[in-house]
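Action item from last week, closing it out:
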Amino acid sequence: MEAIIIGAGLAGSEAALQLAKRGIKVKLYEMRPEVSTGAHKTGDCAEFVCSNSLGAADTTNASGLLKKEMELLGGELIKIAFKNSVPAGNALAIDREGFSKQVTEKILENPNITLIKEEIKEIPSMPAIIASGPLTSAELAEDIKKFTNSEHLYFFDAIAPIIEAESINFDIAFHLNRYDKGEAAYINCPMNKEQYEKFYEILTTAPRIELKEFEKNAKFFESCLPVEVLASRGKDTLRFGPMKPVGLVDPRTEEENYAVVQLRQDNSAKTLYNIVGFQTNLKWGSQKELIHSIPGLENASIVRYGVMHRNTFINSPKLLNPTLQTRERQDLFFAGQLTGTEGYTESIASGLLAGINMARFLKGEELLTLPTTTILGALTHYITNPEHDKFQPINSNWGILDKIELPKKERKNKKLKAELLSQRSIEYLKGISV
């Protein structure tokens, strides 16, 4: 038995490992580095492009529960992610280079997987999982368009800048987690009102990189908005968003600042930090001016500027079953962000499910359809719900799960609700065989 997987990103790599451990021979195709996406930097498998964070790790958060579900389902990349974690408070952030290298090594060492560095331009006629990602090459995207008989939908994704830690001025910046929880994993750059207003003026008047003609009617995904788009919504929007000072009292002054810029560790060596919530499409000269206007970053060495790119996704509600199998071809599956699952954790999880189900299909077994009492089940049901008229990408959240009844006096207890939702999912998954 053999299957093809197109794309060795997060979803494709996970799917390949799932198939391989079930005895299926896999040809895993990856066009990088021979063909560039414009956003990736290496040819390694499972490269993180934007942030290095997979979101919350605690199961009282929907993203954290999804990680636990992947562990219970035998996920491979989630184990590697935890092995390559770097401090990030309650979130799971990784050393992106170390993570990708370990995933690549695991794939190359697997006798059931053949990694082929070649661009695939058409949907294969044999059993296949398409996990080519939101930056799918033009020719393959055109063939997918023909197969689906529909136009692609798309949104725009932006990448945050990365700076060298040794260039940060710690006479101004300080280490602290919000509300001083756990080991201080974030670097914080405080601002008073005057400094914030200067920063805001630079941001809102800075020139942006010109979009191509086909990109003019840009749609943005709400959880990954460029910082300049957020700023355009009002002068205080950033102060209630990525620059909120709440819970970040400077231990040296014991004062809460007007606004705070946070930086998150980007590699295990602690030499690189990305600026949290600063995805941007500003021209590089403007980015430099803006970053250097932040107290503590006045001499920051920028190793990667922010960029914005178009992300493509299919109209999954019209094309896929909750198993991620296409309705038109039983031997064809889609996985990853191409399906409209937004986020790194979600991408890996969809690859996990697609890999399990492709193996089951090839062995003549019943495909796994997870219930909407689990985050992964709810997510796949949401993106494949044929009643969607205006489908947009979504990430894991409590709102897509089946509701749980609480006594009237406990209905506003969010922590209790999250604990019960998590418990329900975990108990179900512990009782099934994959």
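Closing note: The chain has a mean pLDDT of 89.
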